[in-house]
Design a protein that fits this description.
3 domains; single chain; 20 strands; alpha/beta; globular
Length: about 475
């Protein structure tokens, strides 16, 4: 039997696990997945604290691809449940239904503000701005006033930069053809035209009853229980060796002894094919030998926003009916609150309690990133009370999670820098990029999975061509006898 080709995958998030799982199904590859965390799943993992379960989000499973939906269902089986999404925006001490509903918006904003929004909407429909930024794109789509109310403060808390500096690509990619007109149309006639509802305002999704990460844990088990699959946790990439034409090996250090760097021994992972989900910045800076200076400079411009989730246990059975609440207030640092109770009853051991998640975005090195866990928990208690969601004395306990590279930033000329990095990495024919950070593209879980499936196709095709060539050259004893 022909030896298996070695595929080395950097990252055990949805893209890395999908790639590994699909490669093993072909029976042509041995798969070696490297993960710097002590748990698989990436940003889609579920963390347990005192038996309360928290996603980093939380996540929802929604896709326009039937292939991906069936893939999920095959993994989770009957533990995959459909839910009706309920989400609101919190602004000026009022809750607004999301997606927008005209009557709810009118009542929340008052009639004079509503008239301002409608007038602003038609003003920019008739006389649109020249689109050079995220702010321009959204102003043309929704009008200046709605942009200021429902997008500006939220977006600037999320990205940490003015909307005028964010590329219009962000809005075009995330919001696509959604508009105020569509929001109103689907608010009134959505049930009649359910099939055509934009993804942005879909009100149904799937969820694994034991948490988002339970799906990826099942995928991970299938990989490590296979004959040719392995996952190495707590291994951080420090070097990617190459010969200017192909990747030769990946060197990692153990994260378990990171405070004893001088005593560490690097582990060498050789392979025939390599797939990466690590940030492009870190991948380029890990290359050995290093790329040209212009490529290094470009990679350093591709930055990501860090995420902090503050996960609380609340001594209250019911808080709100929301899955998520988007916080459009400048006087709190929380940008979104997720209520795990409303995703699954299996996520809390005490049915009299609630498990909620507060999300804060920052840059590494900013004051909030440098706060201790205790300081962040105090901040969370104050902010849920300030919003009017939960009284401080009802917060029993909590824990903090930090994700350094959560959201790739589409700032200014990012496309120029991205193309420089892409052009350089295309020289390595046995390397493919995939996933959110691996491609520096903010995408959803299903899109990350599709990127993994697309990334492995050339490697599978190459092995099929190789196998066909070998078979063509084999002469069976019967054929040899005929020739003689």
């Amino acid at each position: 039997m022909k030896n298996k080709k070695e595929a080395v995958i950097i990252g055990a998030g949805p893209a890395g696990l999908t790639a590994g799982f699909e490669l093993l199904k072909t029976q042509k590859f041995a798969v070696n997945i490297i993960e710097k965390d002590d748990q698989i799943g990436g940003l889609a993992k579920t963390v347990s604290y005192k038996n309360y379960k928290y996603d980093i989000g939380p996540h929802h499973y929604v896709t326009e691809s039937k292939e991906i939906e069936n893939w999920w269902k095959d993994i989770v089986k009957d533990e995959f449940i459909p839910l009706k999404r309920f989400t609101r925006i919190y602004y000026n001490r009022h809750f607004f239904l999301y997606p927008l509903e005209p009557i709810n918006a009118l009542l929340g904003l008052n009639i004079f503000e509503s008239i301002r929004c409608v007038c602003s909407y038609f003003r920019y429909k008739i006389f649109p701005k020249k689109v050079a930024s995220y702010e321009d794109w959204l102003t043309n789509r929704f009008g200046k006033r709605l942009f200021e109310i429902f997008f500006k403060s939220y977006t600037e808390k999320l990205w940490g930069i003015p909307c005028s500096q964010i590329s219009a690509d962000w809005a075009a990619q995330r919001i696509k053809n959604f508009s105020l007109g569509k929001a109103i149309f689907f608010a009134f006639f959505g049930k009649m035209f359910k099939k055509y509802t934009p993804r942005t305002i879909l009100n149904e999704f799937y969820y694994p009853i034991h948490g988002s990460g339970s799906l990826w844990n099942k995928v991970g088990k299938k990989i490590i229980n296979s004959t040719y699959g392995s996952i190495n946790l707590n291994e951080q990439v420090v070097s990617v060796e190459h010969d200017n034409q192909k990747i030769v090996a990946v060197l990692t250090k153990s994260m378990l002894n990171e405070n004893e760097a001088s005593a560490q021994q690097l582990k060498r992972h050789e392979g025939d094919y390599f797939l990466s989900t690590m940030t492009l910045r870190n991948l380029i800076l890990s290359m050995d030998p290093l790329p040209p200076s212009d490529v290094i400079f470009a990679a350093k411009q591709l930055i990501c926003r860090a995420l902090i989730t503050i996960n609380l246990i609340i001594n209250q059975e019911h808080i709100t009916p929301d899955h998520w609440i988007y916080i459009h207030e400048k006087n709190v640092q929380t940008i979104r609150i997720g209520n795990m109770n409303n995703f699954s009853m299996m996520l809390r051991p005490n049915k009299q309690h609630s498990a909620i998640i507060l999300e804060c975005f920052t840059f590494m090195g900013d004051p909030i990133w440098l706060k201790t866990d205790a300081e962040l928990l105090d901040q969370a208690k104050n902010e849920v009370a300030k919003i009017g969601l939960v009284k401080k004395e009802l917060v029993l306990d909590g824990m903090v999670l930090r994700a350094p590279d959560a959201y790739p930033i589409y700032e200014g000329n990012y496309k120029l820098y991205l193309n420089i990095v892409y052009d350089y990495l295309e020289c390595f024919k046995n390397l493919k990029l995939m996933g959110r950070n691996g491609m520096h593209q903010y995408n959803n879980m299903d899109t990350a999975m599709i990127s993994a499936m697309n990334a492995i196709k050339p490697f599978i095709e190459q092995e099929e061509i190789s196998d066909a060539a070998i078979l063509k050259n084999i002469i069976t004893p019967r054929e040899k006898f005929k020739q003689e």
